[in-house]
Design goal:
The protein is an alpha+beta fold. It has 2 domains: 46 residues, GTP Cyclohydrolase I, Chain A, domain 1 (Orthogonal Bundle), CATH 1.10.286.10; 136 residues, GTP Cyclohydrolase I, domain 2 (2-Layer Sandwich). Helix content is 41%, strand content 25%. A hairpin with a 5-residue loop joins strand 2 and strand 3. The radius of gyration is 20 Å and the shape is flat. Bound molecules: guanosine-5'-triphosphate and zinc ion.
């Protein structure tokens, strides 16, 4: 992605994507000139650029911006982080929850930065497996904790609205590094994310 000035990039790309959506409307049998649809191509373009803004954001920089030296060395768990992403096969939403934990090794990170990192990777075309790994690897290589764990539970609209049309299936993906590779620590994490206590 060329790093042109963001505003200039947004105006140019919004115009291009808007033109494409107008063509799509015509191809599916709609009349882009009817009143209700006049602004739809531009709205859809802005929505798509919002949902894919992760391509223009840097998760490593976000984490590095709020790392603090601390000796705390127990598990830090942020659970039930809402996730909205787009599957790369159909560009339809998949959505659910992410649970992220790490065990610090000299540094902690500002709590809000974890959901921000989740969003940076979710706001791209993804598969749930790669989204899980992207979050895991980013935290592992940037914060260098003793361990990191990521679990994502999600429903895929491409399996609900079309295709196999299953309304209640949930897909769970997970990744573990460092101390979470040991079953004791992993089990403590899994117990915490399944508990109803907040
Ligand atoms: N592993 C994985 N698969 C996904 C994800 N999101 C969507 N898919 C699947 O991607 C696959 C694409 O398969 P294809 O056979 O090429 O596409 P399709 O003909 O539209 O498949 P159906 O959805 O079965 O109708 C489907 O099985 C989807 O369920 C994801 O996050 N991870
Ligand atoms: Zn899909």
């Amino acid at each position: 992605m060329p790093y042109r000035h963001l505003e200039e990039y947004n105006i140019e790309v919004t115009r291009e994507v808007t033109d494409h959506y107008e063509r799509i409307l015509r191809e599916i049998g709609e009349d882009p000139a009817r009143e209700g649809l006049l602004k739809t191509p531009e709205r859809a373009a802005k929505a798509m650029l919002f949902l894919t803004q992760g391509y223009r954001q840097d998760a490593v920089e976000i984490l590095k911006g709020a790392m603090f030296r601390e000796s705390y060395s127990e598990m830090v768990l942020i659970k039930d982080i809402e996730v909205y992403s787009l599957c790369e096969h159909h560009m339809l939403p998949f959505y659910g929850k992410a649970h992220v934990a790490y065990i610090p090794d000299g540094h902690i990170v500002g709590l809000s930065k974890i959901p921000r990192v989740v969003d940076v990777f979710a706001r791209r075309l993804q598969v749930q497996e790669r989204l899980t790994d992207d979050i895991l690897e980013c935290i592992n290589t940037t914060l260098k904790p003793r361990g990191v764990a990521v679990v994502i539970e999600a429903a895929h609209m491409c399996m609900m609205m079309r295709g196999v049309q299953k309304q209640n299936s949930v897909t769970t993906t997970s990744g573990f590094r460092g101390q979470f590779e040991k079953s004791e620590t992993r089990n403590e994490f899994l117990k915490l994310i399944s508990s109803e206590l907040h």
